[in-house]
Amino acid sequence: MDPRPSLLLLLLVSAATSAAAFNITKILNQFPDYSSFNSFLSQTGLADDINRRQTITVLAVPNGAASSLSGQPADVVKHVASLHVILDYYDVDKLQSLSKGTALLTTLFQTTGLASGQLGFLNVTENKNADAQVAFGSAVPGSPLSAYLVKSIAAHPYNISVLEVSGLIFPPGIVNVKATATATASNPPPVAPAPSVAPASPAPSKAASPASPAPAHTKSAPAAAPAGVVDAPAPGVDAEGPVTEASPPPSPTIAVAPTPSADSPSDEGVGAEAPEPVAAEEASSGSRVGLGVAGMAGLVGVAVLAAL
């Protein structure tokens, strides 16, 4: 197996890694004029953040201009120094050929989450009337363009560009950033109280509202039926079985008692009706006729016997 392709691949990877790897501290150590600024980057830990980036631009400030940052609290030093680190690659040629002559640049301070408004951005503007002089300033409205591009210190296209600027970019309000953040953390905004739930109105009580009287569960006395009519029981409220509409009463009928015979006993019971007077008279007449016929038959028999 030919080892040359593997060796060539290894060389390419090593070259790419070497091109991407840089150390801002080592770069600035070569230039004593920026020792104060280099010390700020190392003390605040910003140097490590810069070295982890793949594309970066550092605006280095000479010792004379950086002296105004000495004696400031550590957090203020870190915030101001991080405003001089741009999260993109800009060299002199790129800055002098801005398409609109101005641009808004994102800085490392913007990534901290402490920047409010435009505090984490820089305004870069090319002044055509001053020999293409490039000026930097805070993007906070009303901030001046306080630093000017001087020269290029070092460049590794398109990974890191180190440029010298004439002075520090010190935007208003940067000193109070930590105090504001600390006050917000220690005194968080009051939590709005949860909306009170109105007590549910009580359900209307059955006793409070007048209720219609319940039907009485008692049997009413049946109405008197006409004579000779078979009475149907009146439907009761608590009668067993489904309540159905009562059928109309039958038409009245007159019960005629049969003529009593001598062999049958007379019916004596509750509700038995006495025989009508007309029927009794007819029975008496029949008896008399029968007796008369019997008498005549007897006389005829006597006459026949006499004749013999």
TrEMBL record:
Residues 21-154 form the FAS1 domain. Residues 194-239, 268-283 have a biased composition (Low complexity). InterPro entries: FAS1_dom_sf, FAS1_domain, Plant_FLA. It is a lipid-anchor; GPI-anchor. Residues 1-21 form the signal peptide. It is found in: Cell membrane. Residues 186-283 are annotated as: Disordered. May be a cell surface adhesion protein. Belongs to the fasciclin-like AGP family. PANTHER family: FASCICLIN-LIKE ARABINOGALACTAN PROTEIN, FASCICLIN-LIKE ARABINOGALACTAN PROTEIN 14. This is Fasciclin-like arabinogalactan protein 14. It comes from Acorus calamus (Sweet flag). The gene is FLA14.
